[in-house]
Amino acid sequence: MHGPVVPDRPARIVVLTGAGISAESGVPTFRATDGLWEGHRVEDVATPQAFARQPAVVQDFYDARRAFLRRVEPNPAHLALARLEAAYGDDLLVVTQNVDDLHERAGSTRVVHMHGELLSAWCTGCGERHRWADPLRDGPLCPGCGKATLRPDIVWFGEIPYRMDEIEAALLRADLFVSVGTSGAVYPAAGFVQLANAFGARTLELNLEPSEGTAYFSEARQGQASELVPAWVD
Ligand SMILES: CC(C)NC(=O)[C@H](Cc1c[nH]c2ccccc12)NC(=O)[C@H](CCCC/N=C(/NCCC(=O)O)S[C@H]1O[C@H](COP(=O)(O)OP(=O)(O)OC[C@H]2O[C@@H](n3cnc4c(N)ncnc43)[C@H](O)[C@@H]2O)[C@@H](O)[C@H]1O)NC(=O)OCc1ccccc1
Q1: Which residues form the active site (predicted)?
Q2: How much is the pTM?
């Protein structure tokens, strides 16, 4: 294990990740030509209206992504962030837009899934959350209240992301904000760099190409996450 990680050792770091960090693990990104949104219209699968209108279509969409998770592994970018946590402990927070569990499988524990998790379900009645057990058509009955059906524990468009207060508090205290593998197309995540700037943090973008918000970063590096993130961490 190399010495202390991240040259000029900022005290507190917030890392925002998007689909690009899981791309090299084989998880499709959203806006790429063969991306997730290619096969589906967002409004048909990732909105509460779609779930009300055609729950089976939405369940299938998430069942397929959940099943796919078993066929992918964390890559060197996920592993490098887990090493960073080992060195930083509570002074590091990973905020991910991803609903996969690759950060946790790489060993990260300080992870906020602001858009939810594929492996979690919540009851539309009692609101309880449960680990998802596949496959379940048309929403299974909640094992808790046994009355209402479970829905994917995913933040859909038009819904408020999870743990926003915790995220904003961490951005307020951060010395360094790093964005990895995100196009900066979806809010409020795309606005975090401006918040970090406003709170006086240094900001670094690690992405395959300049994102929509690249101009807001004090530094931007292009390349594959599996190379850029370990190079930055170690
Ligand atoms: C389309 C967009 C304009 N619409 C929005 O932003 C909307 C509406 C909106 C709100 N505020 C606005 C302001 C302006 C305009 C619009 C809005 N936002 C919402 O509805 C949000 C809810 C949005 C969440 C929706 N759910 C997702 N995911 C879960 C579902 C699911 O997964 O199925 S969003 C989903 O899409 C987004 C995809 O973006 P990326 O992850 O960046 O992926 P993408 O494919 O786009 O890009 C990949 C990048 O990686 C790079 N890359 C690829 N390979 C690699 C590689 N190998 N290495 C490095 N980089 C790589 C590529 O170059 C690329 O740049 C992620 O957020 C992802 O989670 N809710 C909300 O605003 O509530 C109110 C509110 C807000 C704040 C406080 C209180 C109330």
Answers
A1: 115 (proton acceptor)
A2: 0.94
